[in-house]
Design a protein that fits this description.
Layout lengths: L2 H18 L16 H6 L5 E5 L2 E8 L2 H12 L6 H18 L8 E5 L4 H7 L3 H8 L8 E3 L11 H8 L3 E3 L7 E9 L3 H12 L3 E10 L19
Parallel strand pairs: 2-7, 3-6, 6-7
Antiparallel strand pairs: 1-2, 4-5
This protein binds zinc ion (ZN).
Length: 234
């Protein structure tokens, strides 16, 4: 074996190890850890209710600092190894939403997530929230679909996000009598969850709770939301 070939093989081996063994903490960048102990501690759920428009959303984390880094790395940095640490807080937020449902008897409650855009599927190859739910031993129902391709929400203000999301989701099948907890990763303005709630209601279902992994602070003034069909829950 020539030295050159040996060097190439060694480099390929190192690349392979880097793929399966993350070399830095996805929260703070510390070397040789998937998630260091202090960042793991920062991801302990602190479930709290937040309001967006007339909706109450249960969020496990605040989208800042370590949580922001880890969630960003998980969603858009290929750090799927962070799933285990993020599944627990999401599960805690769902548990809080479930506990807040006035009456749980008389039938099950379905967990419904927001469908990814085609672009997001192409980029990621997986659905971040569905993957976390599966990691938590929960099974989302694919009840909603994207009606058309809406543009990316990043960088849009509250009113623009709401307009962008208007009627962007549709139920895949009738949801008559179905009770739903909507689950998403991050709630910012709430436009996405409110649109999902509208779509569930339009198909005959009822949204009995909203749960997210994290929430961002509201930085923009509230806008007037007047959708008649959004008034049925919480
Ligand atoms: Zn760390």
């Amino acid at each position: 074996m020539t030295r050159r070939l040996r060097n190439r093989l060694t480099a390929a081996g190192l690349d392979a190890w880097a793929t399966i063994l993350p070399t830095e903490c996805s929260g703070c960048g510390a070397l040789d850890r998937a998630l260091c102990p202090s960042c793991r501690l920062a991801l302990r759920p602190a479930v709290h209710p937040v309001t967006r428009d007339d909706a109450l959303v249960w969020a496990a984390l605040t989208y800042e600092g370590v949580a922001r880094h880890v969630i960003g790395a998980y969603k858009d940095g290929g750090r799927t190894d962070a799933a285990a640490a993020l599944a627990a807080p999401l599960r805690a937020a769902i548990a809080a939403a479930l506990t807040a449902v006035p009456s749980v008897n008389g039938g099950g409650i379905r967990l419904v997530t927001i469908p990814s855009s085609r672009r997001a599927w192409r980029l990621r190859g997986y659905h971040p929230v569905d993957a976390l739910l599966q990691r938590a031993g929960l099974h989302p129902v694919p009840a909603l679909a994207q009606r058309g391709e809406s543009v990316d929400q990043v960088g849009l203000g509250r009113a623009a996000r709401a307009a962008n999301k208007g009627n962007s989701l549709v139920a895949r099948h009738p949801l008559t009598g179905t009770r739903v907890i909507l689950v998403d990763d991050i709630v910012t303005t709430g436009a996405t969850l409110l649109e999902a709630r509208r779509a569930v209601f339009a198909a005959g279902g009822t949204v009995v709770g909203l749960a997210t992994l994290a929430e961002t602070r509201r930085l923009l003034p509230p806008y007037s939301h007047s959708g008649q069909t959004d008034r049925q829950i919480l």
